[in-house]
Amino acid sequence: MTAETSQTLDRGLRVLKLLADTDHGLTVTELSNKLGVNRTVVYRLLATLEQHALVRRDLGGRARVGLGVLRLGRQVHPLVREAALPALRSLAEDIGATAHLTLVDGTEALAVAVVEPTWTDYHVAYRAGFRHPLDRGAAGRAILAARQQTLDHPGYTLTHGELEAGASGAAAPLIGVTGVEGSVGVVMLADAVPERVGPRVVDAAREVAEALR
Hints:
Blueprint: H1 7-20, H2 28-35, H3 39-51, E1 55-57, E2 63-65, H4 68-73, H5 76-95, E3 98-105, E4 108-115, E5 131-133, H6 138-148, E6 157-160, E7 167-173, E8 182-189, H7 197-212
Antiparallel strand pairs: 1-2, 3-4, 3-8, 4-5, 6-7, 7-8
């Protein structure tokens, strides 16, 4: 901690990060041990965060992330989109196919940024805001494969005709970005994805991940 920082705010943010990293919530004692502070301090932190709906406690007393974080999260997509656009533009122009950044939203894949190539006569119409199940389409499948570490190819996933007849897709997951689960990919009108596309998508996903760190 430096003289310019707030110890209380730092602890509150650490509480949120700890809760975000668990599916089962944490007790006051567990938080106290992880933070290295006494239980009274943790009670005060939780009470303050609860007032802002950033934390909730269940009947068993375990603290979890509250719904208030969703209001903050709505502002994240524009920032993520802006950071990803340079890599997506380069990918779309290089491959001649529609490039997209897709993030997890519950059980669905949500396209938050889409860039179409400028020089092709035909390309797949794919819009920001498009949703589909995580287990359909290259974007969602790449995310699921990264969770399970079961990617079929070196770092990317290929699909054909799962979201649109005659369209093929390639996507690579974002790796090493705390708090963001997603993928970068392309979708094209083709029976199969050309061999060079998969590695190029992996490179683009790496560029986006670096921009978001």
